[in-house]
Amino acid sequence: MTSSTRIGDSKTCNCDVIVLSYKEECQDEKPSHISYVFAKESTWTTGRNLLYFVAMERIRHYHYYIFLDDDVDLGFNSFSSEEIKRLTPFRAFEQWLLNDEPAVGVVDFQKLGKALLKRRRKICNTNEATVVVPVIWFDALFNAFHHQAIKHILPYPTQYDRDCWWISQFHVIYSAELIFRGQALEYVAITAYNRKHRPYPRGRMMFTARTPAVVVDIHKKAPTAYQNRTLFKTLKTSQLLWYCKNTTTYCLNKTHHHPIVPYSHFKEQS
Residue 73's beta-bridge partner residues? Predict the structure, then answer.
């Protein structure tokens, strides 16, 4: 991960890296910008929460908190310009974060970016050329959270881990849409890959059953002034796949340092 084409060394990456190991404590030699934490028994959710708490307790303040699985790599694709390719994919992603400052920033995964752009063109009736699109459903393998947004989204809920480790990411997806609608952005010009697939509770049939509880938990924490908004009811009663195929969130233009203010989209609608 510290190779020049990935996260990089302490000179090429303006970052600190926290690595969580489980089962066995990591004893590898490490560069100065890397530190280790250990959790003998950990789920995907509790592991990321531990990383979150460790990072938030540090004296140093970060602009973005980027969570990634240990097997993630980034690469360019057909939407990548020659200008973007002057940097490595990790540096290009970081540069984009600083240029647009999304509340949540993600990249293409499983080459679905093309379909996302097509969906935006259809719903928004636009032919605008862009590689930055609001996104609803995004995988957890590579997520960046702005420092003004992360405390409104994390920590991950752990009560669903026995059924399915994916449900905690539903909390992130719904939080991003309800609290920062239009400010979860995908940078289509970079694709994330992961090559390891380990067994863990997936509970595919639990998604629909758990959706109302996830939305209700977010709803009850929202300011009173916004609790009667129909978006809460829509997300609580609709399947996420249907919502992703029909929402006008894709038509919102909140790039280029749009202020990151919780629930501001409700105020803008008013």
Answer: 193
